[in-house]
Structures are given as structure tokens and as C-alpha cells.
Hints:
It is a single chain. By secondary structure, the chain is mainly β. Helices cover about 15% and strands about 40% of the residues. The chain has 3 helices and 9 strands. The longest helix has 7 residues, at about 40-45. It starts with 5 loop residues before the first helix and ends in a 10-residue tail after the last strand.
Amino acid sequence: MTTMNDSQECQAPRVFEFGCAPDAARLGYSRIFELIHETEAKAVADWSGQDVILVKGAAMGYDPRVMEFAVLKKEPPAVFQIGDVVTYTNDYGVQWPGLTVVGNEFWQRFEERRYFYAPSDAPWYSVPESSLKLECRAPEPSPCQA
Length: 146
């Protein structure tokens, strides 16, 4: 029988039971990167050394050892916060200063954070982080506003 040393143990991904996905999200692991169907030992071995959490789901097929796992990764932090004032520059170099960030989303397909701003003629359309330049930060909320 082989045993892991401390450095190997640190590299093994954590495995959470199905109902514990919210705990993973509180740790910042909220983006489902991939769904896999493996034994737990193979899933842990395959994702060893990577910063992921494996959330164990239901057994798959005829082999009760094969489970479905959601591989969760951390989303990169947002550079801009809601309330920040930014300048948007489109692909042709045209700039719109004085816009307020009102939301953001993470596009998994392109590994890109995108932002919504106001005022906007297309409030459903987000723009990439690289197209925005910070003018000024939103003021910190007072303890009474939090």
C-alpha cells in the first residue's frame, strides 16, 4: 500500500458530496468547468495538482463505483465593481466616458469576464473587461447601507 506524503496530499483536489456545492461556492469555486464520469480514485488522480473541487453526484450506469463529478473552478475576480465609473472603447476606438458599471458575468466559453453599464442603448449586451478603463471607483458603502 502506498501512502501520500504531505506535498502530494496538498495537491489532491477536494471532493464534496452532492449537497455541499454551496459550500464550494462560498470558497469561490462556483464555475462548473466540466462534468466527468469516473471512479472517485480516477477523478482525484486525473485532477491532482489542479486548483479544483470535485462535487460528487449520482452513480452512472451499471458500475456503482462510477460517479458523476462536477469539476468546479474559481472564476477570476472582477476588476470593476458595481458603481465604478468607466470609459468604454469599442473595436473602432470610439470612446464613451462616464458610464457606470451595473453588473458583470463570466463567459465560460471564452474564459472572459464581461460587464454591463448604464446608460446603454443595449442593456442586455455586456462588453469585455479589456474594453473598459476605470475613471473612478464606486464609494464604499457605509455600514448602514450594507
